[in-house]
Amino acid sequence: MEITFNLSRQSKVVAAALFMAVGLFSCSKKEEKDAKYYQDIKVEGQKEAELTAPPFVPKPVGDRAAMKLVVNMEIKEEEGEMVDGVKYTYWTFGGSVPGSFIRTRVGDEVEFHLKNHPDNKMPHNIDLHTVTGPGGGATSSLVAPGHEKVFNFKTLNPGLYVYHCATAPVGMHIANGMYGLILVEPEGGLPPVDKEYYIMQGDFYTKGSYGEQGSQPFDMNKAIKEQPDYVVFNGKVGAVAGDKAITAKVGETVRIYMGNGGPNLVSSFHVIGEIFDKVHIEGGDMINKNVQTTLIPAGGSAIVEFKVDVPGTFILVDHSIFRAFNKGALGMLKVEGEDNKDTKKVYSGTTQEGIYLPEGGTIQNMPKENGAVKSTVAKTVPEQIKSGKELYGRTCFACHQSEGQGVPNAFPPLAKSDFLNANPDRAVNAVLHGLSGEVVVNGKKFNNVMTSQNLTDDEVADVLTYVYNSWGNNKTVITPAKVKALRAKPAPKAAAAAH
Ligand SMILES: [Cu+2]
Question: What's the rounded Cα separation, in Å, for the pair 74 and 117?
């Protein structure tokens, strides 16, 4: 009797546990609708999808029902500018790199019209990572110039997905800019935010090295070796910087739909001076919080969100940092607002400033490549200016900026610089030996360090001649002979260089 009683009590407990487990399971199933549910969901109505060029995105879906969305995507092959003076023929979805942003809701039925412009030279297709089916649409969409292909798919999984061309040689089509993002919002839409932007990283491979002027064709060998000349946001150097920076106001929440087209590199996406409050890892459902840098695979994405608390310029980078400062992977978010008691609590700015010279103020040198001083046939002044401009883009640009405007409190301007125009020898010495200590340029004090630039006599002469003949400066011409003579003299002391 005893034993039987015990057994039946145990089985009752087991039964109760089983019942609860089944109950829980069916409960969670009801909340988390699966792909099958969205496959069967009825669509209500039809409209043409709004498509946008980066850095903008179409309006949120909100709480609309699933519907039929018609996407009209036109492929265009067109020449663009990778960086000042460097032309590149891009292949694009919708005329931009990355291609047009597509915004859908889970359960939508998409009727995709892929049109290949008659002026194009190549056949193309599209593989959308949100499509469940062979090739992600690629097998049904190969389209010759002057033709159109149509196919339909249903969005079964919410998330942020990459699309790209998958026509052979696939790597080349992607390397030329054929990628973009398609967002599938969950039922009810993503939570609203104040600002939304669309950015995609990509690596580019050109015959010439970074900044080499003229029309630059694609370089297959560098692509295979995974050695890009350019790593950029939104298709070109500076596409999201300067007056094309993305913007927000203090107190706003910013959401960036961030993709990586590759074709080769993964991105360590970071915003200097910000922390991502939320990251939808890899563009999926999982949310990580308080993230400094998020990894975005080639052919992958992430949704990052953060509230901006203080005004200023925040730099977007791939934190594989040479890509940012030497290959173009640098963007800007400009946050407007007043610096006040509240923002000062978050960030004080410099509260004290002095000179610290433990080693007696010697200036660091960049490592010398071979120390040899190249000598070539004398150039004309226009030739000097031309090669000087190119050099400027490669060496001085990062600090002194594209129009020589400098960066307040950090890098002095070279445009209309009284310091520069007053004394050419001093300018040559600054480039040859570096410059540190306090300098006053156009009435503003700077106290920073410029490292010596390790250029040949010709290069120093060319870059300074370019600077002197640009942006309202006094048109001085610096000859290689002058540079050579100054190089032979001992470097001025930091204090001497400053006055
Ligand atoms: Cu293509």
Answer: 7
